[in-house]
Amino acid sequence: MIKETNYELIEKLEHTQSLTKEEFVTLLSTFDDDLRKFAAKKAVAVAKKYYGNKVYVRGLIEFTNYCKNDCYYCGIRCGNQNAQRYRLSREEIMECCASGYELGFRTFVLQGGEDLAYTDEIMVDLIQTIKRKYPDCALTLSMGEKAKETYQKYYDAGADRYLLRHEAADDELYGKLHPAVMSGKVRRQCLRNLKEIGFQTGCGGMVGAPYQTEEHLAADLLFAKELQPEMVGIGPFIPHHDTCFKDETAGTLELTLFLLSLYRLMLPKVLLPATTALGTINPTGREQGILSGANVTMPNLSPGQVRKKYLLYDNKICTGDEAAECRNCLNNRMKSIGYEIVTDRGDYGGGIK
Ligand code: SAH
Asked: What is the pLDDT of residue 280?
């Protein structure tokens, strides 16, 4: 009986793009493989409607692992004395873009810890330089919480998109994952500021983080419904050996895949990556992510010598590969499931209104 109700809930989500918190909790706490596959099939159909069998690719440049924050789960948190810190220079970042452009990337993502060495002046100059040199490319930033004026400067300089996972919409859970100086409210306000400024904005969080319940995940879904982000980044939590959560268990493949499908059904046009973390917990995690409704992959363009240093979690994949190898490997992986990686900025909505 319960099972049938759950199938109906998936159909309701498909048709109305919304469910109540209680309905999401029911789905998340009782789903099985059959229901997950049913949701995945529906989610893939929705993704295909807007994006066909195209997978967008983003070149990820991890430009600094210095961070002023001490998020309990993260390998590059400031309290980790064992992290070998690095910063990429403007020239090194431009070299990453050059080799990425050559490989067909038309979106670059600059991601890093919250590193105060990259002042507004430095960032504005970097953003302008990249956008002038590659006017046909989109530039995404993922560098944490900043004042609204700073976000505005980045936007005016030409940045197109901003990824800032809200991490946990529930304040109590947020408080268990972060030191007291950090606040979920501030983070959510940052997201609203980004939207107001006009960025294509991405929220999200980890799946299976310590203390996380189905209620928390349902609250995350409802927050995303309210924010209406253009992108949602979710991937499994994976423990890092130098954090307080080193002995915690990782999030599961099944729950992450199910959530990808729910996000796709709730936000039909959303840009939804099959993350590196998903590929880390399962050898075909990213392919399964696409087959659950995701439509983006973000291979690494960072220079070889720094890749092992941007370790947010243990056993991260592709840290020994060259950018070209990553690109080829992903091409083949996507081909093997009937999808095609495209050379395209890959904006929200795929050009379909
Ligand atoms: N400093 C930037 C970028 C953070 S790193 C910012 O604040 O947005 C990008 C994402 O990696 C984080 O938002 C977090 O959700 C994820 N992450 C960090 N540690 C992780 C871990 N141990 N397992 C899985 N994902 C993790």
From this structure: 98
Helix or strand or coil: residue 135?
Answer: coil
Tell me, what's the pLDDT at 167?
98
Q: Do 245 and 47 meet the contact criterion of CB atoms below 8 Å apart?
A: no
Q: Bridge-partner residues for 200, per DSSP?
A: 161
Is 3.20.20.70 the CATH number for 2-348?
yes
Using the atom order of ligand 1, give the atom closest to the CA of residue 113: 1
Six-digit token string for 301: 């363009």
Determine the distance separating the centroid of ligand 1 and the alpha carbon of 142, expressed in angstroms: 10
Q: Please give all residues whose beta carbon lies within 6 A of any atom in ligand 1, as ranges.
A: 73-74, 111, 113-114, 142-144, 164-165, 167, 205-206, 235, 237-238, 240, 277, 312-313
Using the structure block, give the residue that is written with the tokens 């949602």. 232
Give the pLDDT confidence score for residue 3 in this predicted structure. Answer: 55
* pLDDT value of residue 79: 98
Q: Where are the domains of the chain?
A: 2-348
Q: Between the CA of residue 6 and those of 10, 131, 208, what are the distances in Å?
A: 6, 47, 21
Residues of the chain under the 50 pLDDT cut: 353
- CA dist 95 and 103 (Å) reads 12
